[in-house]
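pasting for ref
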Amino acid sequence: MNNPFVSWAGRVYVKTEYLNFGREIIARWAREVVAVRGAEPKTSRVLDIGFGSGQDLANVRAALSGCRLDLLGIDCQPSHVEQGRQQGVTVYCKDIEREPFPLAEGSVDLVIANQIIEHTKEIFWVFSEISRVLKRGGHAIVGVPNMASLHNRILFLFGIQPTCLELLGPHVRGVTYRDFKKFVETGGFFVVKELKGSNFYPFPPGVSKLLSRVFPALSASLFFLIERTQKQGQFSEVLRSRSFETPFLVTGGTPGG
């Protein structure tokens, strides 16, 4: 028998799902952090990890129409690879959880990882590679489903699994604002500069946008603007200094922890 609460939640989700991806937030932040570099007589490089249809890169290109950009993407789904190439994106097919990103150290101005981190177990490896390819003072924009959103808290009250971490689903990791901030700032390689929320179940789009601005930590999706600090080294040092009961990847293809 279907749970009426779950059925209702599903209907709300369909109406506002597009807000989960925070496209406007990513484009706005990209304009803010890349425009200064783009004003210089050089090309700014933007890397999208798991770029999907390429919508975020297309939005960045539109937002930075006056800047010289080199758009890069990592994705292995054949349809995404073809779409990206048609849009002028340099596409790399790599396993972001086990292979190094095919880019030199400190060669990227902005990294985008939108709705990707929740799919990954090897989160230390992913952020180590982000710390490696980002220029000192460069930025990363990370978008994730919020396990502590208002609607997930209500689901918990009814004994229902959060929608962002269903066992019969693609996500393997739950994220909240405070825990992610603690994680990414450990070791001093990154600092969170700003937080924004997008979508706010069970409300319609107009109300949802307003509530997300006022209560970002209760939104359906969280978006972090992160700055790469001047610290030398890579984020994997955080893992080497700790011991977890799981063999996280330390270097490409080498488990440790």
